[in-house]
Write a structure and sequence with these properties.
This protein is α+β, with helices and mostly antiparallel strands and 417 residues long. It has one domain: Cytochrome p450, CATH 1.10.630. It has 16 helices and 9 strands. A 5-stranded mixed sheet has the order 1-2-7-4-3. It has a two-stranded antiparallel sheet with strand order 5-6. Strands 8-9 form a two-stranded antiparallel sheet. The radius of gyration is 21 Å and the shape is globular. It starts with 18 loop residues before the first helix and ends with a strand.
Length: 417
């Protein structure tokens, strides 16, 4: 079945519609008897492809996630068209790989996410959150994203990697360009894909990828010569180690996936607790007992990462649908997280929801988010700091959302306390 014009997921203007309209469109797609086929939009200098099937139901997304042998992350999972080599050199990280290459890299970088390492970070996270709130209180309320939500995740990732504080703002700006590549505010690319504007925007994207890659690679070179025992020293030392290119790509993945997911979850959180004061009261009545469920419900309800792509390695039948070798599918986590067959009252925000089998950190399988536990810890620490010191904090007006079919991002959010 081919997608209709009113739910053309490949057109950038669709992703600029109000959130309620997009949710309604996905609701209609879930009610169909099989996944729809969507034609791809041709992007100047990158190209297009034959199209893809939109997997919008929870059952399809979770089954495809588990079956990585059939639903492959190669050649590309973070781009609908195949990524040209001149982009893949910076953005072709391990999320675009299958085992055994993916397993090797994940095994190496998982050293950064062990319970022991994360437990050691707890004190640093609390101190960082306190300093960020101190600065916001001194400055006065303005833009919640730039003053608070974006600060902690970038600082955490950079501290993990040993990136000096003087580079943190640069890292944040480059991250905005990478994930805001379709948003005129960050790249100047317009929804009509004017070739001149696309060329300039791709130039900014390449520069962002190059500068972050080189920042990490230079640090890796230093740690090979003079290891300090930090994360980069672990990643470039030992019997299994990352090359300079792998380290650069991993840093881009870490700072983009790790910081942006948490940043947007924190921003969505303030809006959600402002719109749902009953849920705020529930949380504050037993913060430690309910914060775990609150984090998962925020991630489910907001779904910071909208979708990832998979490509069929062979003919396959799934949930009554026949797929052919080479078919592309997009796993729409935002839709799976509102699936009426899995979640009671899926559009409601309920921090006591149990069970909550959301796919906000990806579906089950080898590509489940490696940093999920870190994201939950960051959210917990920041919410504890905010709601303890600023119990009256609330958003004002509507957020300015990122124009993207990949990240459900909040660019700006006015707030007061």
């Amino acid at each position: 079945m081919t997608v209709s014009a009113e739910t053309d997921l490949s057109q950038i203007p669709f992703w600029g519609l109000p959130q309620a309209e997009r949710l309604a469109a996905f609701r209609r797609l879930r009610q169909l008897d099989r996944p729809v086929f969507v034609s791809e939009q041709v992007v100047p200098f990158i190209g297009g492809g034959p199209g893809y099937y939109a997997l919008v139901r929870h059952a399809d997304v979770t089954e495809a996630s588990r079956n990585a042998a059939v639903f492959s992350s190669e050649p590309c999972s973070n781009s609908i068209p195949d990524m040209p080599r001149w982009l893949a050199v910076y953005f072709g990280s391990m999320i675009n790989m299958d085992d055994p290459r993916h397993a090797r890299l994940r095994r190496i970088v998982s050293r950064a996410f062990t319970p022991r390492v994360l437990a050691k970070m707890e004190e640093d996270l609390a101190r960082a959150a306190a300093e960020i709130v101190d600065a916001a209180v001194a400055e006065g309320p303005g833009d919640f994203v730039s003053q608070i939500a974006a600060k902690l995740p970038v600082r955490v990732i950079c501290d993990m990697m040993g990136i000096p504080a003087k580079f943190h703002d640069m890292v944040l700006r480059r991250t905005n360009v990478i994930l805001g590549n379709a948003d005129p505010e960050y790249t100047g690319i317009d929804p009509g894909f004017n070739r001149v504007k696309v060329a300039r925007g791709l130039g900014k994207l390449l520069h962002a990828g190059f500068s972050l890659n080189r920042l990490a690679a230079r640090l890796g070179d230093e740690r090979r010569k003079r290891p300090t025992g930090d994360l980069v020293s672990l990643l470039v030392g030992g019997e299994e180690r990352l090359t300079s290119q792998e380290l650069g790509s991993f840093f881009i993945l870490l700072v983009v996936a790790g910081s942006e997911t948490t940043r947007n979850a924190i921003a969505h959180c303030l809006k959600l607790f402002t719109d749902h004061p009953d849920q705020r009261e529930l949380l504050l009545a037993d913060f430690e007992g309910r914060i775990g469920g609150a984090c998962d419900e925020i991630v489910r309800h907001s779904t910071p990462v909208i979708q990832f792509r998979r490509t069929l390695t062979r003919d396959h039948e799934m949930n009554g649908m026949q797929y052919k070798q080479g078919d592309k599918v997009l796993l729409f986590y935002n839709s799976a997280n509102r699936d009426e067959s899995v979640f009671d009252h899926p559009d409601a925000f309920d921090i006591t929801r149990d069970p909550n089998p959301h796919v906000g950190f990806g579906g089950p399988g080898p590509h489940y988010c490696l940093g999920a536990h870190l994201a939950r810890r960051e959210m917990t620490v920041m919410f504890r700091e905010l709601f303890t010191r600023l119990p009256g904090i609330r958003s004002e007006g509507e957020p300015a959302f990122l124009l993207s079919n990949f990240i459900n991002g909040v660019k700006h959010l006015r707030y007061t306390f």
